């Protein structure tokens, strides 16, 4: 099974890594904030009011639901698979004003 990684931050392009191949996309901003996620086919997505999107997790803990997670402090995003650990504390650096790294589900997959 091919492993896929996803990373995006305000200072760099979206990078998708699939089987060692890197594909970069430009950034999209909306009202000064990084917009995530991009999609082409809206019929493939569904709105959800699940409380799973309100939960904030600590770095390195088990991923509660597969999907794309956003760091609450800085907005960097990472994909993670249920049961696997979320990105660790050393995944990226924060300033003191951004606080600790915390992950929140923004797009759930199954």
Calculate Rg over CA atoms. Answer: 14 Å
Overall strand count? 9
Number of helices: 0
Q: Into how many domains do the coordinates divide?
A: 1
For the record, give the distance between the C-alpha atoms at the N and C termini, rounded to a whole number.
16 Å
Overall average residue pLDDT: 77
Question: Order of strands across the biggest sheet?
Answer: 3-2-1-8-7-9-6
- Specify the biggest β-sheet: 7 strands, antiparallel
Q: Which percent range fits the helix content?
A: under 10%
| Beta-strand percent range | 35-45%
**Shape descriptor:** globular
* H/E element order: EEEEEEEEE
**Backbone structural class:** mainly beta
Oligomeric state as shown: single chain
| Low-pLDDT segments, ≥5 res | 1-5, 8-13, 15-32
Describe this entry's structure for a reader:
By secondary structure, this protein is mainly β. The protein has one domain (4-41, 50-108). It contains no helices and 9 strands. The protein has a 7-stranded antiparallel beta sheet with strand order 3-2-1-8-7-9-6, with no helix packed on it. A two-stranded antiparallel sheet has the order 4-5. A hairpin with a 5-residue loop joins strand 7 (67-71) and strand 8. 12% of the residues are buried.
